[in-house]
Amino acid sequence: MAAGYLEILRARHAARLLAGTLTGRLPNAIAAIAVVLFVRAEGGTYSLAGALAAVYGVGNAVGQPLLGRLVDLYGQPRVQLPAALVSALGMGVFAFSGTDPLPVAYLSMVVAGLFTPPLEGGLRALWPSVLRREEQVHTAYAMDAVAQEVMFTVGPLLLTLCASLWSARAALLILNVVGVLGALSVVLSPPSRAWRSAPREAHWLGALRSPGLLALLGAFLFVGIALGSITVAAVSYADDHGGDAVYGWLMAAVGLGALVGGTAYGARRWSGAPERRLRVLVALLAVCYLPLVLMPGAVAMTALAALAGVFLAPCIACAFIIVDRHAPRGTVTEAFSWLVTTFTVGASVGTGLAGPVVERGGAVWGFALPGAAGAAALVVLLATGRVLAATGDGPVVAVSSENDPNRAVEPRFSSGDRA
Questions:
Q1: Complete domains list, the chain, with CATH
Q2: pTM
Q3: pLDDT at 390
Q4: CA–CA separation, 396 vs 417, rounded Å?
Q5: Separation of CA 150 from chain center
Q6: What is the mean predicted confidence (pLDDT) over 175-180?
Q7: Closest residue by Cα to residue 384 from 260, 163, 213, 148
Q8: How far is CA 323 from CA 49, 72, 191, 264, 372, in A?
Q9: N or C: which end of the chain has fewer CB within 10 A?
Q10: Spatial distance between the Cα atoms of 388 and 148, rounded to a whole number of angstroms
Q11: Structure confidence by residue, pLDDT tens digits, 217-233
Q12: What angle do CA 164, 167, 168 make, to 5 degrees?
């Protein structure tokens, strides 16, 4: 199973790009928790902490596709590194000024969120030029999805460790400096410096002019809702079954399930159109959410939470392939960033929906929401099947100029070669 992943990591620059991207994304992975810890350490209320974290999230959702479009237009180093520096500066101002004056705190969160560099979309745009063979690229997408689960598990642990050793302010500053160093490692790499987007048609909608991409985003909005609603329903369940420790085990189990599922998914080569495969994966994802409404004891519930996460990473990895198939020429980074944004917005919507649902109907109805959202995602995919079946632009061949061997153009695979 590990052979495919080791083959990817042995490819020139691959390990550096993956490690640098994950490190560069640490500030984003821990932002919400870091803001809450810092605001509470400063004596602020949970409401204020939540509001500041929400402002960061909105800024991030707006900034990712906009910065992704700039990357497609001007290249990675000219956008990613300045964005990382400005985002870290915003967090630095917040760390030193605190919550007083309040307008400065909110403005800092807007800047930090809006300028979060689109490293995630940038890495997926780089994989084809680094790996060349399509089956390796698909494996890399799966590995990327698995690595995300590790990052979102390790990131909060690093944050709490730094906060306990020094302070919440120090943790905020240190992890943002580490994030800049990660972004620097990526943009100084030869693949990032050489990468150029394919020639694009000028259009104000950018990647969103692709009907197939819009269909995929519609489905993944509901996948995000499903994941976001679990986090709230699990709090309600944990309140009656052991408190914070049980909640931690449930969330860790979801991540572990995604880790196992993504690892298994990427370990084999899949045949057939990824659009059809995604429908199957989303259906399995929705089915695996349903047992959560049984709400057994804590041990059995932890096992069900792990089951609920098994098909999450495979769905994300498969979606990456579909984004690459449907993104209009010259918009691949923007298209990947739209997927990230849509999933993030969906998770926020799911959190907001689950709150009143749990208050009125209890945890059982909160756990019914992920299954319903998963079913809605499947309905979207089924209703737009004909749109998704039609791939976007024709093939673009990966080339390097003989006069400039470091100049690489965004590769795309022809529909006849795609698995």
A1: 1-197 (1.20.1250.20), 206-409 (1.20.1250.20)
A2: 0.78
A3: 79
A4: 12
A5: 12
A6: 95
A7: 213
A8: 35, 15, 21, 21, 24
A9: N
A10: 26
A11: 999 999 999 988 887 88
A12: 100
